[in-house]
Every structure is written in C-alpha cells, then in structure tokens.
Amino acid sequence: MEKREDEQQKRDDSRFNQTLKNVQGFLKGRSIPGKVLLTRRSDPPPYPISPTYQRSLSENDAGRNERFESPVEVEDHNSSKKHDNTYAGKLRSNSSAERSVKEVQNLKIGVRSSDSARVMKFNKVLSETTVILEKLRELAWNGVPHYMRPDVWRLLLGYAPPNSDRREAVLRRKRLEYLESVGQFYDLPDSERSDDEINMLRQIAVDCPRTVPDVSFFQQEQVQKSLERILYTWAIRHPASGYVQGINDLVTPFLVIFLSEYLDGGVDCWSMSDLSAEKVSDVEADCYWCLTKLLDGMQDHYTFAQPGIQRLVFKLKELVRRIDEPVSRHMEEHGLEFLQFAFRWYNCLLIREIPFNLINRLWDTYLAEGDALPDFLVYIYASFLLTWSEELKKLDFQEMVMFLQHLPTHNWSDQELEMVLSRAYMWHSMFNNSPNHLAS
Hints:
Layout: H1 2-27, H2 94-105, H3 116-126, H4 133-140, H5 149-156, H6 164-186, H7 195-207, H8 221-237, H9 247-259, H10 277-296, H11 307-323, H12 325-333, H13 339-348, H14 356-369, H15 373-385, H16 389-392, H17 397-405, H18 414-431
Helix pairs in contact: 2-18, 4-14, 6-8, 6-10, 7-8, 8-10, 9-10, 11-12, 11-13, 11-15, 15-18
C-alpha cells in the first residue's frame, strides 16, 4: 500500500512540476508546451479553450521583445480515474478552478471594466434589494466601471450594508460619527494633546505634501488638510498601530473615487474648493471608514515592527524561488534581500510603483479579494517582480537595487496590469492549497 502511494505521489509531483515548467514558459512569453492542467474535469470544458494573449510593449519594457501569443488549453491528459488525485486537481474546488480558467484565459485586456455586458451584470447585482456580495466580488475582480466604483467599493469593504433599505441610514450615521470624531480629536489646540499626539500630527503634516507628488491635485492645500484629518483621526482611534508612514498612500484611491461622485473631468482638473463643507466631510468620512475596513484585515502590517509585512515578504521570497529558481538564485548570490524592495510594496500596496491612473483598477481586485487579500498580495507581487525576470538576471547588486526602486512602469497601460493579475491568479490556483511545494 505504501509503495503504491509513493508511486502515486511521484506521478503527482511529476505532473505538478511539468505544469510549473509550462507556466514558467508562459512567464517568459513563450508558447506553452503541452496543456496546462488547472482543473480536474475529465469531460471537455463547456467554454472556449484557445484564446490568445497579446501584450503591447512600452519603450521602457527593458528589452523584452516577445509578444504573448500563447494559447493555454485546459484539459485532463487522461480521463481515467487514476489521475483524479493530482496536485492540480486539488488546487481549489472545481468551481473555483473553472473560474480561474475563465478569468485568466478569456481576459479581454483593457475592456473588461467597461464592456456593456459586464455593465449589465453589475446593474443586475446592484439593483437587488440585498446585494449578494459573492457575485459582486466575482464581477469586481476583473474591474469595475469607473462610475460604479464608489458604490461597489463601499459594499465590498462592508462599509455600506448589502440591504439597500438600510444603506442610506447607515451611511448617514457613520458620516456623522466621523464628523464627531474630528471635532473630538482633531479640532483641538496643541495644549490639549499629549506630546506623542503632537509628534504624530506633525509627522502626518510632513507626509501629506509628499503623497502622490506627481499628481498635482494632491498638492492642493485643501486636499492635504483632508488627508491630515482622515489620517490623524484614524491614528487616534487605532492606538495599537497609530500612524505609520505609508498609510497616507492608502487613503488616496478612496479620496479620488469618492470625490468622483461630485467632481467631473480628470483628477488634475479638480478643485476641492468647488465642494461644500458638507460634501467634503462626507467624502472624508467614506475614506476614513473604508481605510478602517481595509486595515482591519491587515492590522499586524502596521503594528510595532510590522510583523505581518515581514511574514509576507518571506512568503514572497519562497514563492519566487519555486516559480523562477534562476532569478531567486541570482538575487541570493548577489546578496539582495527581498526586504530591501518588497517591504515598500506591501507597506504602500504598490501605489508608489505603478502609474496612479492604474491604481483604481488594481484596487478593484484588492477589494474583491476581501479577507484573503494579504495572502493574495504574495502572488500579485511575485507576478509583478517576475515581469522583469530576464532583466534582473543581467544585473549586479547595485543595479538591481536601483532598478527595483525605479521600475520602468510609467508607460504601463491596463494591458500590463491585467497580465500581472492573470499570472497571479494562475499561480495562486497552483500553489495556495499546495503549501508543501513552497517548502525547501
């Protein structure tokens, strides 16, 4: 019996490793040999299995000249029952794996969030008396139409209740609670604050002008004052962490999305002075509560020594080692530690690494992941890093540090971001329920 189990384990490992090689080929832009096994289905899947990826390249794509034109088929290599116990078959439930295949393979880059059929699906879900959050998450993962984001983000974060009959009253009450907190904690003379509170407020006041410096809107004094009120009020009400540099970045997507309900045109054309004090307060309140909900799921990322981030950086290192061993070995041989570049990624959730106009799309996926977000970040960041797999192997320590601190993403479009997310989803499907494959 044990011998048969060992033989089965070896067959499973062999198939898993072949699948991994196929994915590694996909990462490098080559056609995938064979078939990538992502489901346990023995019958033909009821959806198309031969779409084509195409990736437009920017001038800053650091020398990559391949185009992704890799048909990825999903098929059980043998329909006999002896293969039902493969690692790939155990990755997730059948429904989740099928969702992975559909989302990754049928990706229509750049149009998912505005496609008319998807808009109709969003309208149908949002028009229900009680929104079914699981359906909303499935839709939002691939992008939310911009004008729907305020409502969708409030729902995904649990700030607005799914029941539409209660929604308006809950938002009104929470906005009033925020306003009262600002009066209680922020609108005070320094003589009524402790030394620690004064120092914290000064640090926030220093950081606010540094927030998203390449977007002129955030240099407006009123915008910086709003950020200051939100951050200080949040920090006082969350003494376990208080204010940590980087949290200021996390407010910015919320501020842009909730202001978009009141201001038209591009962000660079906006002026907070066009809004009444009441509307500014409502926007700040929505930012405050959504930031609170987001950070509730990653509290140890911002407590003393930030152990949550350190844990995820270690997981990232292990995942990269398993997916792309040559890059991992090259970085290790040159003494580059993942903490030297990935700490900022986790601390600011990539806001400082990609163009600000792509952040909202990225955050659609973040918020759709819900409580699972911290673990899924590992896969997003592995995919992000290995976008430059070939380039990194040509650099020495100092060059890698400089490259990773100034990544060539400023010409990125939705296409590059969607590719990062689709790879992350595929790797999550492969590895998340197979933790032994991440162990040395």
